[in-house]
Amino acid sequence: xxxxxxxxxxxxxxxxxxxxxxxxxxxxxxxxxxxxxxxxxxxxxxxxxxxxxxxxxxxxxxxxxxxxxxxxxxxxxxxxxxxxxxxxxxxxxxxxxxxxxxxxxxxxxxxxxxxxxxxxxxxxxxxxxxxxxxxxxxxxxxxxxxxxxxxxxxxxxxxxxxxxxxxxxxxxxxxxxxxxxxxxxxxxxxxxxxxxxxxxxxxxxxxxxxxxxxxxxxxxxxxxxxxxxxxxxxxxxxxxxxxxxxxxxxxxxxxxxxxxxxxxxxxxxxxxxxxxxxxxxxxxxxxxxxxxxxxxxxxxxxxxxxxxxxxxxxxxxxxxxxxxxxxxxxxxxxxxxxxxxxxxxxxxxxxxxxxxxxxxxxxxxxxxxxxxxxxxxxxxxxxxxxxxxxxxxxxxxxxxxxxxxxxxxxxxxxxxxxxxxxxxxxxxxxxxxxxxxxxxxxxxxxxxxxxxxxxxxxxxxxxxxxxxxxxxxxxxxxxxxxxxxxxxxxxxxxxxxxxxxxxxxxxxxxxxxxxxxxxxxxxxxxxxxxxxxxxxxxxxxxxxxxxxxxxxxxxxxxxxxxxxxxxxxxxxxxxxxxxxxxxxx
Length: 585
What we know:
23 helices; Bifunctional ribonuclease/(P)ppGpp synthase; RelA_SpoT; NT_sf; DUF429
């Protein structure tokens, strides 16, 4: 069965929002359409079989003036929450004759009786009172464009609504959004005009309408139908007992309003936070590259406004989990480091502990293991800038901010992503949950074993990788990355592997120095006292082979090495290292 939401424009010049949920509450379609024919064409695949179409527009309007009884009844409950309904009567040109909603139902062949038990039917709904009832709001969200409301205010309110809808993933019945929804969130965050928000607003309202239809079918005892089939009706979730309006003189009095205020502030600074997240990625990547630690990827993001709103609204025993969301939610800037083997996770964590300010360190894998089970494994660090980097322009947006760094192996990452998508975004029938839990646990145990085997394989390969593999000759004068990797494995047997692209990068620096063969490289390194160099550098983390070579070349060539074109982007860093090698403080 499909649950269809239609945020119907009263005229055909404005867009109509369309959304479809499947029987499990999964969003399977969201779009905007113009004419009746376009709406019918878009919905046709979803209304051929069993369906309930929830339409935000009057369907039955017999009265020539004033309110329908349905509006009068609904207003008695919801007007004090700013969720009253506008009058619907045939005196309005757009409702004269057959209302557009009724024409659309006729074109789709839908029964409009709210008491009908037919398999293909439609109902009239109204989003504003539904949001008050579903989310227990003190007043409606002000995401509709009216005089005096700024772009940022509208954006903030719309993102609050989107965050609340995402939060229905854990509700009964559930709503599970998809990739298209994430695209709508991005459109709202990037909008520069109110008209751009309006296009998304219609589609968000359509998703809400579809959910109202799903809720009405699954929770009839919590649903109210104002009015009746003969005089017109409106279906909405029932107003919760005891819910009172937020006093206008104390707009931030309720928990819901505190969340909304925090989300507005977060939305206003989100563009800056995205730039700060880019700086956090650059910070972590620079530290890892400078240390020569091998890793698969470093990525980052600023938490979307919708995700922030969802987390900010989270409650525990009826109390906000984050009383001051802007301060208490610490992962708004997130960086993820994916390594190849488990030993590198510890190396990355220790390196960051040494290089930046560490506010918190949680080993989620160890916590899982301490409970005697297999499951989610990841190292979570909360970091801030150290005193030196606080003054550097490259990280100015990170001043006074913290970033969460998640470190995990590629296998741990695969398990976490798959489990999250299946368990929390997919649809698992209740009767199958125990079996899925067992299978996820089994998979986690197998991947932990695989992680250990990969570590063993790497260690043994590294121990035996002392000869140079033969490679076909080509016209590139540089030492090939494979030859260089084999050479360095013998030169620095106690060093870890470096990233593949780093071998190619430092081979280019060797070419700038005029070194084009391993024999020439060996001769250049012969004068280096490796033990003394290591003592001077005082490595507090396991540097990779390329970093060891980098320091050796710096010691051998000094200022000439610093001045190479390929080092122009890191000249200050190299000069600091050179002073350390020369014994300067």
